[in-house]
Amino acid sequence: MTTQPPTEERLSRLEGAYEQVDERLGDLRSDMHERMDELARGQDALRSEMQRGQEALREEMQRGQDNLRSEMNERLSEFARGQEKLRSEISSLRNTMLLLFGGAWLTMVGGLITLFMRG
Fold first, then answer.
1. 3-class DSSP string for the chain
2. d(CA 10, CA 43)
3. pTM greater than the 0.70 cutoff
4. What is the per-residue pLDDT across 77-93, written as a single tens digit (0 to 9) for each?
5. Cβ atoms of 10 and 4 closer than 8 Å
6. Residue 1 above 80 pLDDT?
7. Which of 27, 39, 51, 64 is 20 to 30 A from 13 in CA distance terms?
8. d(CA 66, CA 61)
């Protein structure tokens, strides 16, 4: 039969083991807090980067909208100018047509009067 060490010696060993475990747990707790702090810093950096990206995207979209608005206004102005020019040409052609039809009518009426007077 083997003899067991005395109880005090066993308690002393248990206390030593407990202190080692407690020290290791403290180290683990410290490491865990460091990792959590590191993770929080990383999240903050990511949030900041995302906000900068959103702001840049918002500014780029605003510039794009402004450019599109400007281009559309230019095209609408060109269209309005073209439309006004076309209206002017149509009016001019209408006036020319009225003059031609008026002249033709007068010629026909004059011709009919001449034929009637001769006949």
1. CCCCCCHHHHHHHHHHHHHHHHHHHHHHHHHHHHHHHHHHHHHHHHHHHHHHHHHHHHHHHHHHHHHHHHHHHHHHHHHHHHHHHHHHHHHHHHHHHHHHHHHHHHHHHHHHHHHHHHC
2. 48
3. no
4. 999 999 999 999 999 99
5. yes
6. no
7. 27
8. 9
